Automatic annotation (TrEMBL):
Residue ranges of every copy of the Pyrroline-5-carboxylate reductase dimerisation domain listed in the record: 158-260
Protein name, entry field: Pyrroline-5-carboxylate reductase
Native source organism of the sequence: Tritonibacter horizontis
GO molecular function: pyrroline-5-carboxylate reductase activity
Role summary: Catalyzes the reduction of 1-pyrroline-5-carboxylate (PCA) to L-proline.
Catalytic activity line of the entry: L-proline + NAD(+) = (S)-1-pyrroline-5-carboxylate + NADH + 2 H(+); L-proline + NADP(+) = (S)-1-pyrroline-5-carboxylate + NADPH + 2 H(+)
SUPFAM superfamilies from the UniProt entry: 6-phosphogluconate dehydrogenase C-terminal domain-like, NAD(P)-binding Rossmann-fold domains
Length: 263
């Protein structure tokens, strides 16, 4: 890893800059081994990293780098027009299959991943899947890169990656919807909107940290509350007996289906 040069195509976007910040903070590579391309040839917010090379020329970046991280929107893949046959390619483009990346760029050493802007604070979850040609060294690099962004796992299929794209996508959509519902309930009980909002934000912050720091699985947290037989248990029993789980699964199914067409 000491001699590798990494290039981020689309590195000035929301996800690209989050990944770049995680990489620089973790120091898995020094800044003089990192290239970033953007349409403007400029990169704001990284002025202190004087070793970074920023370019508007994707071909120049590809020629200089060993690993290319594709951070562009799925629809922009055809526009980058680069040949990547001899590169390790890591893609965080939602829904874009390994086969399509090969068809478009000629690459064979491909790792397809899912991450999120939470990477900037090392709080992302980044599952990834490797094409057949990917080597053990390639895998080690990808795992190190995504561990710099938070937590990461190699998974076994692209179909599984689509599920994670729906569940842990780039914004906390499903979690935010649940938070919105709780805040609306508080407001319906006469609680001021700003207080309801603040309370729910703090609740989800604390709950997320508690689950992240505990060895217990989410189902064990739920069962623990039910076994305690307190006020929360009464509400959880109602939710478990309702159609809530089925409807949530339908929403996730819809997101997975969209992921498989968006690329």
């Amino acid at each position: 890893m000491t001699d590798l040069k990494l290039g981020l195509i689309g590195g000035a976007g929301m996800l690209g800059t989050a990944l770049l910040r995680a990489i620089l903070t973790s120091r898995i590579l020094p800044d003089h081994q990192i290239w970033v391309s953007s349409r403007s040839g400029q990169l704001q917010g990284f002025e202190a990293q004087t070793g970074l090379t920023v370019t508007a020329d994707n071909a120049e970046l590809v020629a200089a780098c060993d690993v290319v991280l594709l951070c562009v929107p799925p629809a922009a893949l055809a526009d980058i027009k680069v040949a990547l046959a001899d590169k390790l390619v890591i893609s965080v483009m939602a829904g874009v299959t390994v086969a399509r990346i090969t068809q478009t760029t000629g690459a064979e050493h491909i790792i397809r991943a899912m991450s999120s802007p939470a990477a900037a604070d090392a709080r992302a979850y980044s599952p990834w899947v490797a094409a057949d040609a990917v080597t053990a060294a390639d895998r080690d690099f990808a795992q190190a890169l995504f561990e710099a962004c938070g937590k990461a796992d190699e998974i076994t299929s692209e179909a599984q990656l689509d599920v994670f794209t729906a569940m842990t996508g780039p914004v906390p959509g499903f979690v935010a919807f649940f938070a919105e519902t709780m805040a609306q309930y508080a407001q319906s009980q006469g609680i001021a909107p700003e207080i309801a909002d603040r309370a729910v934000r703090q609740l989800f912050l604390g709950a997320g940290q508690a689950m992240a720091q505990s060895d217990a699985r989410p189902a064990e947290h739920v069962q623990g509350m039910i076994d305690y037989a307190g006020t929360t248990a009464a509400g959880l029993e109602v939710l478990r007996a309702s159609e809530f789980g089925r409807v949530l699964a339908q929403g996730l199914d819809a997101s997975v289906a969209r992921c498989r067409t968006i690329g």
